[in-house]
Amino acid sequence: MAVSFNESVIKEFEDIARRYTDRRATLLPALWLAMREFRYISTEVMQYIAELVQVPYTRVYEVVEFYTMFLTNKPGKYHLQVCQTLSCQLRGSDELKEFIETRLGLENGACTPDGLFSYQQVECLGSCHTAPVVQVNDDFHENLDVPKLEALLEKLKKGEVQRG
Ligand code: FES
Which domain holds residue 117? Predict the structure, then answer.
């Protein structure tokens, strides 16, 4: 079955599209809606968005590949994004990455076999003053160190972390 938004999301998209004089400008909002609805942007979703926004498929592909916030593979229940830019690196993000890679057995971009955790190294998350930062789904976890990260992963495993 072909991928598409449901009726209410199409209406939401069309409401957004009315704010723009050029439909091509709706590409980023459309991709955000797609992330919210599908959790990742598959090839089929890119084809659907290209038709919806009326741009070539290659344009959608380029944008999706450029921004790390657009996932092209199904993420885990908890998607861990570890900032590796300077402020976070100076304050220990290398240790956080190493811990995740060792503890969860994950390489950058991978997902655990049980689908619980996926892991991605990203550039500045815009919270340098609270470095190092790990984003879990939509929530920031700040001023982390390895013990705090270990405790966070345990809480996530037990489903004890509330959305911020
Ligand atoms: S450098 Fe990590 S949030 Fe900016």
Answer: 78-157
Distances (CA, A) of 123 to 84, 91, 92, 110, 140: 6, 15, 14, 17, 14
CATH number of the domain to which 60 belongs: 1.10.10
Number of domains composing the chain: 2
Q: Examine the domain organization and report whether 138 and 82 are in the same domain.
A: yes
Interval 64-74: pLDDT, tens: 999 988 999 99
Do 61 and 89 belong to one domain? no
* pLDDT tens, position by position, 28-70: 999 999 999 999 999 999 999 999 999 999 999 999 999 988 9
In a domain, 1, yes or no: no
Residue 162 has pLDDT above 90, yes or no: no
Task: Verify whether ligand 1 is closer than 6 Å to residue 47 (CB atom).
Answer: no
- Entry pTM: 0.87
CB burial of residue 59 (10 Å; 0-12, 13-18, 19+) = middle
**What is the amino acid identity at position 146?**
V
> Is 133 close to ligand 1, i.e. is its CB under 6 Å away?
yes
Question: 163: pLDDT confidence band, cut at 50, 70 and 90?
Answer: low
Ligand 1 closest atom vs CA 87: 1
83 and 146 both lie in a single domain: yes
pLDDT for residue 137: 93
